[in-house]
Structure formats: C-alpha cells, structure tokens
User: What shape does this take?
Amino acid sequence: MIAQLISIGNEITSGQTVDTNSAWLAQRLAEFGVPCVRHQTIADEIEPIRHAIDDAAGRSDLVIITGGLGPTPDDLTRQALADAMGVELEFHEPSLQHIEAYFAQRKRRMHEGNRQQAYLPAGSDALHNERGTAPGIRARLHNADIYCVPGVPSEMRDMFAVHIRPQLEKQSGGSAMRIGILRTIGVSESEIGERLKDLMRRDRNPTVGTSAADLVISIRVVAHGPTRDIAQSSLDADLSEIRVRLGNVIFGENDDTVESAVGKLLIERQLTIATAESCTGGLVAKRLTDLPGSSAYLRSGFITYANESKTDLLGVPASLIAEHGAVSESVAKAMAENCRTRSRTDIALSTTGIAGPTGGTPTKPVGLVYVGIATTDETVVKELRLGDNITRDQVRERTVRILLNMLRLRLLRRADHDRNPS
Assistant: This one.
C-alpha cells in the first residue's frame, strides 16, 4: 500500500500558514508501513484540486485530503471530489443535524453557509466530526480509498484516530515501519557518517541517514518488519548501537532540544541557574524558560546590552571593560561570576559578542563571541569564531546552542565523577 497526501488552501500555498498536517499524517502512516510517495499543496481552485485528486487516486492506494471543507465559497474539496468521481453532490440530512446541534450546544447562531457542509458526493460516506462542524468524507476512486478531513489540526488528528487508523490496522496485515531519531551536537555530519559507515549502507534494514540543521545533526533510523514488534526490535537494536558509538554527542531523541536536555539535568541534580547576556539579548533565558517546570532551576536573567548595564547591574568594573573591551574573555568571566554571586545560584551563564552585521573590526570581527559558565568550583570561558558569513540571528542562535551544550557536557562529566570519584 502506498499513500499520497493533498493539502488544500490558499493560506498554505501563499506561505501564510505552514502545513504541519502532512508531516504528522506521514509519520502516522509510517507506523503502519505505509509509505507516503507524494505531498501536494493545492490552492483553492476547483480544477487543480479535481486534477490532483484524480491523479493521486490513479497512482496510489490511499489518498488523504486535508482542508477545503469549511462553510465559505472557497471551500471546494467536496465539489472537486464529486467532479473527480463524476457524480453530483447530495444533501445529507444527518450531517446537517450534527451541524445544527453543534451550534445549539454552544448557543451560537448557525450561518446559512454552514448548510453547504452537509453536501457530500453521491456514493460517499460522511465521517462524524466530534470537534467541529465539517463532516469528513470517505469515498472510492479508481482503486484508492479517499479520505477528506478538515484542515484544523485538532479536528484532523481526532478524525484520523477515529476513522482512518482503524482501517489501516485492518489493511496493514501486521506489517509496520518504525522510525527513531537521535539528535546530536558538537560533531560534524561527516564524522558521524564515518563512525556509522557500516550502519548507513543503503541495502540494509534498518536504514540510517543524517540531516543537518544549524549545528544539530539528526540521525534518522527507519526499520521495517512483518509486525510492529519485530520492526521495533530492529529499531531499538540500531538505536542502542548508535548510542554506544556516539556517546555524549547525542543529547536527545525525536523532538528533544539541547535546552530540554539541560533542563532535565538541572532538575535531576537539583541545581539553580542564572543568565547574564549581552549579544544574545535574553535568548539563553528564553530557551531555558520555554520548558515547562523551568521555575525549578532558573532564578534570574540579566540583559546587560550596554556597557553601563554590565557595570550597574552585574558589577563588572568599568576599568575592566575599558582595558579589554566588552567583547572579551575577561568581561565574559566577570559577567558569569558576578551573575552567580548576585543571583545566589549554583551556575551562571554569560554571553558577550558581536552579532553583526556591523560593529566588527579586524581584531574583533563579526561573529566573535565569548561565552562563560561560572560554578561554585570554577569559571570557564570559551571564545567562539562563528564567522561573518551568517546572519545576526544565526550568530545568536548558535551561541545559545554552543553554550547550553557546554553546560550539558559539564553536567554529564560532573555526574560521572560523582558516581566514580576515583
């Protein structure tokens, strides 16, 4: 069985809305061993939608269409599907009753336009929608099963669970695909490729591949098997082997981030932290507070962008700044140490640098950043040369990731030392 996904809407083709539905659906289909051979995004135009449906149904076994089921004139999925099937739209009284009940329960007036949501292509079935007004549609075209569901992600996911997933469980015959993703930072993609060379042969199962995105290298492992348990066992074996080979360069899996790995370690170790930021403008603190439960470890954050703020808020001597410059190892060290003292935390982080695109000099170019970590034991400062060929946002983002990874590795080393003090 192979599948195609079609997303409908001008808001997607114009870039105003990002299509997250297709990614989510493709992942769910993969769990049943159903590969998705094409994702299409079609504007609210009836002929392109009709053509896309007809073409997809002729080339695959399963087509899932999201969007275009609303109550406005530009919601054309129903009509386009009917045209592709060569049938008329028919009024479906039970769907209208559901729509009316939906509004009545919420004490809202139903607009006349909502009546069009009760029309379905002749010969198709309505799919009940618990979360919204638009019923889904199930139909057959050529040799394909067609499912139309709303584009609202919460409604789409609910309808997939209720109406599509059970059919996949029946049709998959037990075969399955399992996918695992490991996230790494601190080594190059080529080095990972060398370490995993034998696992990345294209003729083996599972398959192993890498992708890079702003310092993070993701390792994707895809295992196929006659059953989900067998596929999962193959996946687990490869993931375990990769963890052994790469060690602490792996910071997490699936949707984990460097900051979530750091937050977990801080909670486990019952440590508190504060931040003192210049060039990152509070981004380190933001990343740490993006996580639920961050109040357990983050005490405070100082944004000391101006030299005077470094002196007034953190107590960095003006003479130190005058002698070495705000972007210097000495100032980064003083920022971290004074931040930790004033915040009364176990750890403090500091950043000071030139994010660009202007402000660089031959001796201190754009992309020069100093990051510091102060603990009760010592203070370490690292000079970063990120280059002047990346954007201001990239300089800031990479600074945050490198600094948080430095902290992650330090916390891991300290944990290992505590377990094996000799």
Observations:
- The domain at 176-253 is CATH 3.30.70.2860 (Alpha-Beta Plaits).
- The chain has a mean pLDDT of 94.
- The chain has 14 helices and 17 strands.
- The first strand starts at residue 3 and ends at 8.
